[in-house]
Amino acid sequence: MYKPQLKRIKLTILTWLLVIFTLSCASASSTSLPINSINEATPSDANVTFEYFEDADKGHSFESIIKLPDAQWTKTEKGNISLGFSHSQLWLRLNINNAEIKTKNLVFEIAYPLLDDVIFYAIQPDGSVRSLDIGDSKPFYPRDIEHPNMLFRFQLQAGENVDLYARIKTQGSMILPVRIWQENNFFEFAAKEQKFHFFYYGSLFIIILINLAIFFTLREKLYLYYSLATTGYILFFITFRGYGQQLFFPDLPAVNSQLFLSSMPFLALFSLLFAREFLQTKQHSRVLDMALRGMIYFEYFNMVAAVFFDYNTAVRISAVSAVVLFVVLFFAGPISWWAKRRAGVFFTIAWIPLTIGFAATAGRSSGILQNNFFTEYAMQLGSGLEALILTLALADRLYREREDKIIAQAANIQKEQQRLAIQRQLSETMMRDPITNLANRNRFEVLANTMFSKHKHERFVIFVARVTRINEITRTLGISSVERIFRTISERLNQSLSRMPGVVTSTHSPGATDAIFQLTGDTFGVLIRQNIFVKNREQYQSFTKKLSLPIEMDLLSIELEPLIGGALYPEHGLDAAQLIRNALVAMESSHNSTDHIRYYDHALDIYNESRLTLMSDLREALKNDEPTLHYQPKLNLKDNTVVGLEALIRWQHPKQGFVSPADFVPLAEQTGVIKKLTLWVIERAAKDLQWLRSIGYSGNMSINISAKDLLSERLKDRIEEILEKYQVDPSKIFLELTETAAMDEPEAGLIALNQLTSLGLKISIDDFGAGYSSLSYLKQLPASEIKLDRSLILDITNSESSRIIVKASIDMAHGLGYKVVTEGVEDTETYQLMKELNCDELQGFWLCKPKSLQDIGDWLSSR
User: Fold this and answer.
1) What residues contact residue 510 under an 8 Å CB cut-off, 6+ apart?
2) What is the pLDDT of residue 377?
3) Which residues, including other chains, have CB under 8 Å from residue 372's CB and lie 6 or more apart?
4) Are 756 and 742 in contact (CB under 8 A)?
5) How far is the C-alpha of 463 from the C-alpha of 533, rounded, in Å?
6) Whole-number Å distance between alpha carbons of 381 and 360
7) To pair with 787 at 20 to 30 A between CA atoms, which of 236, 286, 324, 691?
8) Which residues pair with 507 in a beta bridge?
9) Which H or E run includes 121?
10) CB under 8 A, 24+ apart: contacts of 204-208
11) What's the DSSP call for residue 440?
């Protein structure tokens, strides 16, 4: 029972005696070299004690270096040295002893892949020398181990020792982390390291794909810059870690070196472009924007330097550039943050880990910091964190842009609501509609409010219905036909509803009953007792289905497509005005329902009263000279010269931010502010034209006016005073008004236009083709130019019918003696087509977007 244990004890004692004997022999035979004893207790990636000699003259060979006196060698026990950028040839030497009783397979590693020329020497116990010549500047194969680092495999029998030497030359950083591995442990570590790199590169690759997808969807260069900057990280670390040569260019070491040199300015360039676009530095910090632009220009130079300069010089330039880059971008985030830019917060947070990683990597490369896991992988970890944070920032940006679009859509709906409100106010001046003879909104509100006061505890529902296709029918059949349709609809509705249970009616004359009321030109209202309506719901549903059926008139089947909205008393309002309002809000969204009927829902009510204060703010803004003008050029298609500019107003509200002209100009027309606005634009445009003349611009200036301006008695005198004040030739001023505006007050408008042309001013008919005016009237106008509406050319490149219509419009205008300008040209194909169709001039984003005065001046000077 005890014999096996006794044998094991004896074997252990013999083993330790053998180890002690072996160590004694090794100590006696190799006292001149640092001895590193390897046994089972030795860490798997043990740092070793070694000696090094810096051969500044590069004059020593292996034969001479082994004879070098011990006093000239420098000993280190840290396991690594870092000399920064060094032109010297460096020699290492150490002794490895196997303190075990079994054979050991070992790996001598210098864990830095960017060493140009490394030769390992192993002096075997029998005196023979084995060598391995590898390096970053040489073909990858043959190597002892397929790995980017400098590796040398050797085997030691039990109790055996070996003297190891290594000679290193490189143009880059002399970083020498020296380790001795037991072979199986090295391969385990290498496998884990590859998993780390796979996760890192895979994550960045996914980020690149996501941002490229967003770029191709939105066409915003910000996402392209970010994708390319992230690609720069991948390219940099693949070449920096030596995987480029190992996996892609094993026989072309120069290619890997060149890619490494080019990856640094490539990464820096697109990081700067992304930062400038993401932080929008041009809008809030002129100095920071100039610094970023200067760095961008330098990185263009750096990319050229990486190709044509020698390796050492290119690396040093990139190192200096990287320091400046990180300093600039380190402060770019806080500066943008200080300017209250949300992007600045994300950028600052994202740049902190990358800056720490860069500092650690730079310190390791220059020899200031020792080589360890943190300094080796710090920049890679920092770049990964930066990529993650900036990806979250871009996601936040996308979300906020979507919210802004929703707000813009809500503003458009509010604009439409206000337009309808003004229209209703005008119709309320009469008690009945002159066409349908239906009672109007005033009568309806009186009836409803009377019922509410008499039956306070009873529930009612107000329905409003709108004929949605009335405009289309008007354009197709004409006004007289539409009036007949309305009379027919009104008679049928009134007769049908007066017989429906629960409908509240009003008797306005003997035998004449009002069951339906005309709230606006195309909107009708009806008041119903809610409890009776619920009991007869199926009958009402059948009635609304009949409303959606086409009506027959003049052998035509006409679909009206009514929308219906409802509001309940008292749930949705306590008076008729509020209930009508809420029913209209419900009606606006009823087209989404299957039966085109919807009840009011407060949660879906997006209207508010904030726009009502917009006009008083505009008056104050004009008084303080707050708006600005942007200018869009017009191109002569005969000789491709810029012959004109159109003045377009821009307003940055102090609280609401940028307010679109489409939001405030119609309100200005409705409230009378348009007259002050037009005169302000004319004076500013004349002043700006005077400055443009001073820099060589000789073309004309187009200014938009409205129908309200034509009715102003002092318009002619004020324009004359302004032109004289700024010494502007009247023949260089084009006053643009839409064809529908010209038709508002035909006789008065014609007189006003003739007075303006008597000054020498030119008249231009804007948005031609969007209205439905009389050609017989238009040809009486003293106009010299017609501008085709952008809607005419939307599909002109792929629609033959659109081409025919535009060609006919151009030929007709030329036949009447008008010059023709096409608006909204956004691509080269449309430009070429308009040239072929003999159009005179064009304007649009293809030529130039509207620019500020200074920018349009620079643009004109550059042509």
Assistant:
1) none
2) 77
3) none
4) no
5) 11
6) 11
7) 691
8) 513
9) strand 117-123
10) 204/230, 204/233, 204/234, 204/384, 204/387, 205/234, 207/387, 207/391, 208/234
11) B
Tell me which amino acid residue 40 is. E
Segment holding 767, helix H or strand E:
strand 762-768
DSSP sequence for 672-733: TTHHHHHHHHHHHHHHHHHHHHHTT---EEEEE--HHHHT-TTHHHHHHHHHHHTT--GGGE
If you ran DSSP here, which 8-state letter would residue 148 be given?
S
Cα separation, 560 vs 544, in Å, equals 12
pTM above 0.90, yes or no: no
pLDDT, average across residues 730-739 = 88
100: left (phi over 0), alpha (psi -120 to 50) or beta: beta
Question: Residue 388, exposed/middle/buried by CB under 10 A (0-12, 13-18, 19+)?
Answer: middle
Give 793's pLDDT tier (boundaries 50, 70, 90).
confident
Q: What does the pLDDT look like over 462-488, one tens digit per residue? A: 888 887 777 777 777 777 777 787 788
C-alpha span between 846 and 851 (Å, rounded)? 14
Instruction: Give the span between the Cα atoms of 731 and 757, in whole angstroms.
Output: 9
Mean pLDDT over 705-733 rounds to: 89
Is the separation of the CB atoms in 516 and 438 below 8 Å?
yes
Indicate the pairing of strand 460-467 with strand 562-569.
antiparallel
Burial grade of 506 (CB within 10 A; 0-12, 13-18, 19 or more): middle
CA distances from 560 to 477, 605, 859 (A): 13, 26, 51
99 vs 124: CA distance, rounded Å:
16
Q: How many angstroms separate the Cα of 523 from the Cα of each of 318, 441, 468, 469, 490?
A: 71, 10, 9, 12, 11
Query: Do 108 and 152 form a contact (C-beta atoms < 8 A)?
Result: yes
| pLDDT tens digits, one per residue of 421-463 | 666 554 444 567 777 778 778 888 888 888 888 888 889 988 8
Tell me how far apart the alpha carbons of residues 805 and 59 are, in angstroms, rounded to a whole number: 87
pLDDT tens across 521-569, in order?
A: 788 888 888 888 888 888 887 777 777 777 776 666 677 677 888 889 9
Q: Residue 141: phi, psi to the nearest 5?
A: -105, 150
Helix or strand or coil: residue 172? coil
The model's pLDDT over 143-186, given as tens digits with 9 standing for 90+, comes to 889 899 999 999 888 888 889 999 999 887 788 888 888 888 88
Q: Is residue 120's pLDDT more than 50?
A: yes
For the purposes of burial, counting CB atoms within 10 Å of the CB of 744, is it exposed (0-12), middle (13-18) or buried (19 or more)? middle
Which amino acid is it at 614? L
In this predicted model, which residue has the larger pLDDT, 60 or 360? 60
User: Per the omega criterion (within 30 degrees of 0), is the bond before 142 cis?
Assistant: yes
